[in-house]
Specification:
By secondary structure, the chain is mainly alpha-helical. It has a domain of about 80 residues. It is built from 17 helices and 6 strands. The strands form 3 sheets. A two-stranded antiparallel sheet has the order 1-2. Strand 5 and strand 6 form a beta hairpin. The longest helix is centred in the first third of the chain and has 30 residues. The protein is globular. The two termini are about 50 Å apart. The C terminus is likely disordered.
């Protein structure tokens, strides 16, 4: 059900973005373009403090020339550019969530890389054209003052059909939340299955096979986070934490490719891809931390709060008996309320060797390192 809902809302989101792109391209083709910069910036000889944007007559495409488009009131610093990349990356972070549901993907060895290769260029293409449509028809003041840019765009250009935009924004938001809950709950489910979270989170509904406890934990955490922070700071926190986790993961991948080159890997990419990503990651986080040390520092502190939780909940094996009794009682109550049980696994799939042989070399990683 969740995948069907996600498919429907994704199609609806793309249709709404397609409408914005078409309307924006029509505006550009007709020459109805609003310059993104005030007249005082475009014509320095005019001494005025009025920050009204230039509306070019039909057929005048001067606003699309590089001299006008890339003219800035002030030159941004490298740290500000890095922070802009970090904030914009929030819109492109969906590629990583697909990895959380690998077990539910049909033929993941083939479809997982295919989905990433298709989705990232598609999202980049659609979002680029959407921003071009916005900037060609709206002034910077309108963009900054708008709570929902798509709604303001629709009210300005779609006339009586502008009601489509708020509905599309609402559906897009619901679809995004559905995708987040669908994927992130599997992250809690896998963590509990590995013993890093309470065992209750590793249980699924006895009939629908849905990880209800993990879903409830994700919902509760989301509501708490929304109540204690602003959207701007939350995006910075999440983006910094995500990219820090991505970088550590990529570094681990490179370490294993170096230490265990013959380890069997179902999905394998050229080393140039992770190396380039790691270099970009280091520059991005380094300059972002330099530009916004407080925001990025808070994100780092939030991430480090998991260290004492790990030592108390996972590393500490000899806990008092009362702690085990409480966990057992809470697990029992959770099972009764959510109707969940531990999933049954195929014993043939479980009995797989921890280190496989590289099919291309015919040697095991243990024999290669000996």
């Amino acid at each position: 059900m969740a995948t069907r809902i996600q498919d429907v809302f994704t199609v609806g989101k793309l249709m709404a973005l397609g409408l914005i792109i078409v309307v924006g391209l029509v505006q550009i083709c007709n020459g109805n373009i609003i310059s993104p910069w005030p007249r005082a910036l475009l014509l320095p000889e005019i001494k005025t403090n009025k920050l009204k944007c230039v509306i070019y007559p039909p057929g005048n495409y001067e606003a699309l020339t590089p001299q006008v488009t890339f003219s800035l009131e002030r030159t941004p610093s490298v740290g500000q550019i890095a922070l802009a990349f970090l904030q914009a990356s929030f819109a492109f972070s969906g590629w990583n969530f697909l990895n959380y549901v690998t077990e539910e993907v049909v033929e993941p060895r083939r479809n997982l890389p295919r989905a990433i290769y298709i989705s990232i260029p598609l999202v980049t293409f659609v979002y680029t054209l959407t921003n071009i449509a916005y900037f060609s028809s709206m002034s910077p003041e309108e963009l900054l003052s708008s709570n929902a840019v798509a709604v303001t765009f629709g009210e300005k250009l779609l006339g009586m059909f502008s009601v489509i935009m708020p509905i599309s924004v609402a559906l897009s938001t619901f679809g995004g939340i559905n995708g987040y809950l669908f994927t992130s709950s599997r992250l809690c489910f896998s963590g509990a299955r590995e013993g890093h979270l309470p065992s209750l989170l590793a249980m699924i509904h006895y009939k629908n096979c849905t990880p209800i406890p993990a879903l409830l934990v994700c919902c509760a955490a989301t509501i708490v986070i929304l109540c204690i922070g602003e959207t701007y700071n939350l995006i910075n926190y999440v983006s910094f934490i995500n990219y820090l986790s991505y970088g550590v993961t990529i570094a681990g991948l490179l370490y294993y490719r170096w230490k265990k080159p013959n380890l069997y890997r179902p999905i394998k990419v050229n080393l140039l891809v992770p190396v380039c990503y790691l270099m970009f990651w280091a520059l991005l986080l380094g300059f972002s931390l330099y530009s916004e040390p407080v925001v990025c520092g808070v994100g780092l502190v939030i991430m480090l709060t998991g260290v004492p939780v790990y030592f108390l909940g996972v590393h500490w094996k000899e806990k008092p008996k009362c702690v085990y009794n409480f966990i057992e009682r809470a697990t029992y109550v959770g099972q009764r309320l959510c109707f969940v049980v531990f999933p049954q696994f195929d014993p043939i799939k479980i009995a797989t060797p921890s280190e496989w042989t590289d099919r291309s070399s015919g040697r095991s990683s243990l024999s290669a390192n000996s």
